[in-house]
Task: inverse folding
């Protein structure tokens, strides 16, 4: 049985449907991420899990029990807020002690658990400090310690890294992963930053307009996006308008503009004659010398002059979003390009990739 | 780092006029009053000359202070005034807090309108409003009682409690309430552990704005109170306008100022210690 089940949940605000019939299940011990652009409903969903908002339809189940009648203070679920929401009039230690006091734990146990929780986030010596005396990263850690100290069934994190600078964010990402592994508590993480989601999560639900577009592991989301939106949202992608010319269980054959026939992996719902988009990851494109081209499944003849743009090594998960468009700069891997002899000494290739202009979206 | 000279000059130019105003019309009169409390009353009111002439009283004397500390009646009136001021402050606080909270948590648009309603009574004259209470309380046989005094005091001073409380509560981060609830606090605990401690600055300034004027108030006890409801303010007013004993009135005013300063100082000390222990 999954730890948390969201069954056919819908939430409307006036004319806006913030959550549109969402169903998903989160397993115990998972690092689960709700990923999507702002306004996609991910925070609304998180607030409903926490109990600050209630679904108009559908139900939320935790440990096999319907949460409908439980106010936030009675749910074994704690939240790390984007603004941290530390109590400014309490010291760090008293902030962390707060949930224990609310649970009416004896003072001895509170002192011990506060100490342990602060040690977990490496803030042993900050117990007497006040929130305004801490840096952003330290506040973040206090918020984590406070939310984890009672060992809730589930920790909800609402864009907790959004307020940190890039360097600190990466460091906190690493700490979050190890903290989640150490305490073994299910994390439900909300973010609009796809690199963050890919780096942290066991599974990700990509959301748009109140619906879950795809729910899968990071590598499958990256490698096998369910639709154009997911392909575009996760990582860098070249979008090539294509028409399915042949669909078999073993693979597809696509007609891609001026490139001609392209062999692609099988897709469940693809039918012959269907129009669509071929999503091509930059690292899947290689520039090789003509005599080794036959090693590749799909290869297209081109001249050096056909390329314009810089080729560079890129980490697939981290790069800025770029697309192949007619005349646009291409994202290619330079190592292969150099080996191919097309770019013997320089890192720059010049030329133009001539692809047909965009067909209507399918 | 040294502040550039021009900047310092600008600061003084801006702060200068109000500072000079306070110096001229608060500090200086206070000093004059302190001096006056040590003088003899003039034959027909006012003050006797500082240099005594033959057959006349003059110069400086501690007579008024001897009188004040020699008779329990003055201490009693001071204590009664403090009591009325404290009770008024407490009633104002209890009545104003829920309203201030309600306004602070209303939608932004409605908030401004509600604040306007709170200050609307100021549009009519203070005395008119007190007379209105005479008309209300008279037929109920409550006029000229301590109750009437408290009702009048609370009515007049309530906005002074609501406004600072509202200003404070409005600034509270709503995420803190969510966080408290999320971490297991019910509404009661959320209020007493988060909202109220954070509102203490508003509670203190509101209390000061009510307590201090009430302590010196004379119109309300005179109009709504009975014989036993005389407060320090009535004594001072009587000394200046009734018996025309200016030195005695000055002494009472000075004692009132000192009492207020002592209480404000104690409150500040208490607040600081409270903040440190919290």
Result:
């Amino acid at each position: 049985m999954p730890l948390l089940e969201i069954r056919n949940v819908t939430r409307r605000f006036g004319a806006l449907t913030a959550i549109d019939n969402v169903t998903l299940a989160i397993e115990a011990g998972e690092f689960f991420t709700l990923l999507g652009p702002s306004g996609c409903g991910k925070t609304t969903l998180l607030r409903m899990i926490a109990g600050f908002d209630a679904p108009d339809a559908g139900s939320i189940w935790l440990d096999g029990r319907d949460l409908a009648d439980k106010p936030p203070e009675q749910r074994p679920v704690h939240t790390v807020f984007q603004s941290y929401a530390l109590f400014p009039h309490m010291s760090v230690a008293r902030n962390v002690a707060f949930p224990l006091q609310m649970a009416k734990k004896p003072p001895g146990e509170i002192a011990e658990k506060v100490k342990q929780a602060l040690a977990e986030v490496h803030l042993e010596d900050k117990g007497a400090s006040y929130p305004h005396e801490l840096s952003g990263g330290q506040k973040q850690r206090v918020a984590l310690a406070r939310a984890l100290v009672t060992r809730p069934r589930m920790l909800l994190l609402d864009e907790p890294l959004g307020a940190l600078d890039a360097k600190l964010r990466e460091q906190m990402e690493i700490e979050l992963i190890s903290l989640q592994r150490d305490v073994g508590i299910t994390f439900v993480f909300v973010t609009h930053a796809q690199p963050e989601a890919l780096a942290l999560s066991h599974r990700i639900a990509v959301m748009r307009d109140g619906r879950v577009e795809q729910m899968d592991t990071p590598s499958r989301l990256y490698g096998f996006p369910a639709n154009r939106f997911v392909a575009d949202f996760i990582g860098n992608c070249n979008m090539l308008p294509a028409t399915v010319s042949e669909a078999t269980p073993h693979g597809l054959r696509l007609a891609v503009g001026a490139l001609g026939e392209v062999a692609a992996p099988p897709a469940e719902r693809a039918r012959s004659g269907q129009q669509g988009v071929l999503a091509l990851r930059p690292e899947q494109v290689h520039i090789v010398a003509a005599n080794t081209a036959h090693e590749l499944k799909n290869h297209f003849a081109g001249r050096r002059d056909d390329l314009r743009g810089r080729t560079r090594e890129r980490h697939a998960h981290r790069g800025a979003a770029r697309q192949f468009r007619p005349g646009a700069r291409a994202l290619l891997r330079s190592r292969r390009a150099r080996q191919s002899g097309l770019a013997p000494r320089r890192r720059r290739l010049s030329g133009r990739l001539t692809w047909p202009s965009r067909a209507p979206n399918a | 780092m040294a502040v550039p000279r021009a900047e310092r000059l600008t600061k003084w130019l801006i702060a200068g006029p109000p500072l000079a105003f306070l110096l001229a019309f608060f500090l200086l009169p206070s000093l004059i009053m302190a001096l006056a409390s040590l003088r003899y009353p003039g034959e027909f009111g006012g003050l006797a000359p500082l240099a005594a002439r033959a057959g006349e009283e003059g110069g400086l004397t501690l007579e008024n202070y001897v009188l004040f500390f020699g008779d329990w009646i003055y201490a009693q009136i001071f204590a009664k005034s403090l009591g009325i001021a404290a009770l008024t402050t407490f009633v104002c606080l209890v009545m104003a807090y829920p309203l201030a909270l309600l306004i602070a948590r209303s939608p932004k648009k409605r908030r401004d309108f509600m604040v306007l309603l709170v200050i609307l009574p100021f549009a009519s004259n203070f005395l008119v409003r007190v007379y209105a209470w005479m008309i209300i309380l008279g037929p109920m046989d409550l006029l000229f009682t301590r109750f009437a005094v408290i009702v009048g005091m609370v009515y007049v001073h309530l906005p002074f409690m609501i406004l600072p409380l509202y200003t404070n509560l409005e600034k509270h981060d709503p995420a803190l309430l969510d966080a408290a609830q999320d971490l297991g606090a019910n509404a009661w605990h959320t209020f007493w552990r988060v909202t109220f401690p954070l509102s203490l600055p508003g509670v203190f300034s509101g209390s000061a704005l009510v307590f201090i004027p009430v302590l010196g108030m004379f119109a309300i006890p005179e109009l709504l109170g009975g014989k036993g409801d005389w407060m320090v303010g009535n004594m001072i007013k009587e000394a200046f306008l009734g018996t025309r004993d200016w030195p005695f009135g000055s002494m009472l005013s000075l004692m009132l100022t000192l009492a207020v300063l002592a209480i404000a100082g104690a409150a500040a000390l208490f607040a600081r210690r409270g903040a440190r222990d919290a």
Summary: Residues 4-228 of chain A form a domain with the Rossmann fold fold (CATH 3.40.50.300). The longest helix of chain A spans residues 166-183.
